[in-house]
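ok so heres the complex, two chains, lmk if somethin looks off
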Amino acid sequence: MARKSRGKQRARSAFPSQQPWQRLVNPYSPIEVLDEEELNAIHEASMEILENVGVEFLSERALTILENSGAIIDRDNNLVRMDRGLVLESISNAPSQFTLHARNPQRYVLIGDNHICFDSVGGPAYVSDLDQGRRAGNFNDFRKFICLIQSLDVLHMCGGIPVVPVDLDPATRHLDCIYTTITHIDKVWHTTGLGRQRMSDAIDMLCIVRNQTRDEIKTEPGIFTTINCNSPRRFDGPMLDGLMEAVEHGQAVTITPFTLSGAMSPTTLAGSLVQQNVEALAGIAFAQIVSPGSPCIYGAFTSNVDMKSGAPAFGTPEYTQACLASGQIARYYGMPYRSSNTNTSNVADAQAVYESSMSLWGSIMGHSNLLHHAAGWLEGGLTASFEKTIIDAEMLQMMGAFLKPFKVTNDTLSVETISQVEPGGHFFGTKQTLDLYEEAFYSPLLSDWRNFETWSDSGAQTATERANILWKNILDNYEQPHIDPATDEHLRVFVDRRKKEERQH
Amino acid sequence: MARKSRGKQRARSAFPSQQPWQRLVNPYSPIEVLDEEELNAIHEASMEILENVGVEFLSERALTILENSGAIIDRDNNLVRMDRGLVLESISNAPSQFTLHARNPQRYVLIGDNHICFDSVGGPAYVSDLDQGRRAGNFNDFRKFICLIQSLDVLHMCGGIPVVPVDLDPATRHLDCIYTTITHIDKVWHTTGLGRQRMSDAIDMLCIVRNQTRDEIKTEPGIFTTINCNSPRRFDGPMLDGLMEAVEHGQAVTITPFTLSGAMSPTTLAGSLVQQNVEALAGIAFAQIVSPGSPCIYGAFTSNVDMKSGAPAFGTPEYTQACLASGQIARYYGMPYRSSNTNTSNVADAQAVYESSMSLWGSIMGHSNLLHHAAGWLEGGLTASFEKTIIDAEMLQMMGAFLKPFKVTNDTLSVETISQVEPGGHFFGTKQTLDLYEEAFYSPLLSDWRNFETWSDSGAQTATERANILWKNILDNYEQPHIDPATDEHLRVFVDRRKKEERQH
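and the predicted structre for the whole thing:
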């Protein structure tokens, strides 16, 4: 994982060609599954529940803040009811677009409007590859993923802990993970939102790596976190603590209900979206009450269970519709929107890909601004797969190419070129082809377009088998982005100190 | 392949559950990659070429018909130039929507407007499955595909010869294929457009199986064919003969240029679409001159080559954009629109699926009315794959479920249900869940949603491996649709007579 010397690099296979790191804008109108009346009906139903039924906040501090802002609190059961005036006024303070800054100034990202950002899978406890199959994650796997995420230019950001290093002490694991991430990646990063101390550590380390004060990073946020609602209608204490710490320091939060239709939300998609909306708006309103104007993202994760078994299913047609509808709902409130690249498959196979494609198309044509878990997610999010990471990188690159606006000009219309080639002839030798051929079309990362015989003679590898070779090839060629040795030292000292403190607890 | 006795059926595995055969309508607005000005520019460039440069028609009869209609013919090089008045007036006679009738009256299909139909792969010379790999197709493989196509309810129609039976005499192969198809399938079917005699045989056999005269089937078309332009700008003689025979008998033709950007068309997508449009409009105008009002489909097949090797590539981001743009162009002229479910992969793997998904989404959100090669296509169309057929069937079923309109009603909004479930609880036991659980969500054909341990314990099969089991299972359960023995006999007599005639040639 260390930076390779030149000599060593030469001995390795070359880094595969990839599309350059670039910010993406969706030039197409979103697909809309709801008409205006249906959108209003979802809004009205959400307001009814927010006003009359309420959402549980398991934090005394949060309840007090909400009470002081005018919410009605039922102390017996921690239920918070907010009238629509309070909700809508609060969320109106959230910016419709904001920038997240990376330690590499070139790699800032824009969240909102028609921008779209991809990040890596975050959170799985298991890891899998073709060599060793599926097993619990460890710190070595974690580091390999971190290097892959840095190397894959299609990923704008690091989506969190790609796989949990279960071999590290849970009390201090986050310190090791953050240190490794921010020294090996120069992109914007996701940090855990579970608890005030972990968030505070992340903010301190962000300050160190950026050589800025807490006041300075407040106006130039660089990290984002996911605040899950423990659906239905419950925000747990540690999540609320993490949320408050993040927004008080101007860092971005994605409020993401886990509305699994048929289990944690109603057995209708419309009902699940109402509940998602209730929970997301409650969380965003709370964030804005704590810190008006802080960057928030409307997170959507509505999918459904397999009604035969109760098992969660992702990348279903319902998931696609929910992605599109959620985008409409987020835009209704002027909020940036997050969705995910999900699938249910246990292995990086055809199912993983067709479910992912349903997720990707729903997300991208729903104008998701943050596509979370965009690369590497498998098995309903329980596993991070090395091969799926490469397959996803190819799929994301293809979507990026698809999002490039179509060019119609006198030159591209090619009337002269068409007129010059005789019927039944070919265009290989035309001046236009010779001028354009290098950059004319999308060039793949993983796809093999050779004919059957050539492909067969060279080993007849499936895309998943080629992905296995590619991720190792990319890791062989990993180059650590420059970090000032003093900064690195400062980070190490911080981590050591904090580890000692945690051990003394 | 024969109809199974009851006893035999019991001994076999059950037919897997699938979504019922149903006509599909796309409820969403199409994705548009071209604005009005760009669309007009493509139209103008096309008219310029049709008027001033021309298209080659390699048929004396076609040239005479075109000359008589007012086109300008250059007899030295068979080039036909048509002014825009002639082109637009001719194509205005084509119906914007029409019905194709099947021998099973329930299985008619609507082509045009927002309807979308799926058919099977047509034309490959090779066949592949996990058991025997990829090899030349034979009549046994052909028959197996025919039974699969009948059994898979997601396929509205049979897309032609799914794999060429190279073990049959090429001179009479079409007779065996048509006989097998129409006796084993009760859906609308595609027949080869190559040559007048083959088309005439198909029409005769359509009359026999429907027990109708040539005059009667003329107003109730039941077959469709693909007329490829030998791009650039050439219609070959046999294709024109087939076209004339089809439209003179009121059967449907899909005029499909093979505009492979960088090889058979310009190295820009806009230029390739101009050329596609020139060729499609020339063919459609000719069809309408021959038989005004006959059903025609605007066929689009614009993809691009790999500029490094010159090899064709399918399911690329450019292909997706071309599908969307072609839909806009077809609608500009009020024509039904055909595209294809393509990919370049040599095997039914992740690449085959992500390329297919790019094709599917471009086609469906481009409002394709006929998705040709929708199931089974592999290797740029050279191979028909049994496993890919099943994977595609699942993907098509999922798209079908995605196309079901979203339901927002007081009931589905579920305010009461949400209010009744306590925070942190679950919805498994609610009345709503119990009422809805059987039909609530999409139920898959191929996807395995079991958890890793269960999946692993039962063999850890990939989706492609499961597809291998499924297609055999489906074939085991194939039931031939009823055909009147006299009709069957009539068909046999016809085929025998025609075979003798061909042998005497």
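quick notes: The two ends of chain B are 33 Å apart (CA to CA). thats all i got rn
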